[in-house]
Amino acid sequence: MGGLMVAVAAFAACSMAAAQTPEAPAAPETPAIPATPERITNPVAEFAGIDKITGRIITFDVYIDETVQFGALQVTPRICYSRPQTEEPKTDSFVEVDEITLDRKIRRIFTGWMFAESPGLNAVEHAVYDVWLKGCKQKSDVPAPDAAKTN
Q1: Whole-prediction pTM value?
Q2: Is the CB of residue 111 less than 8 Å from the CB of residue 32?
């Protein structure tokens, strides 16, 4: 029986030593970095505008670095980014909006980013007209400025 007690005591001592020995720290896992989808640069920005007097809402396309007049406002997109259709939508455009005043002067009323997913965030709110970004497109039914000049 003495041999059995020695074996049990040895087993208990080994178990306690193993429990008290700190485990080696696990190798740090490298965090998974999600693949960042590339932004798509588009040649056309699509806007919507409302004339608050008539209540008429229209949608219009503007080529990058071109200016389109909506009422007394001149809208000029400088860049228009979107993401692939397989990704979460995120469409933004850097836009400049000028107002033509009653005395025919041009006054900048907005310069900044517009976000299609949050139209109320940076839409242009004017006394008569509101303008907001609807999206970015690769093509438009409106002829490109270069094509219009050559015809």
Answers
A1: 0.71
A2: no
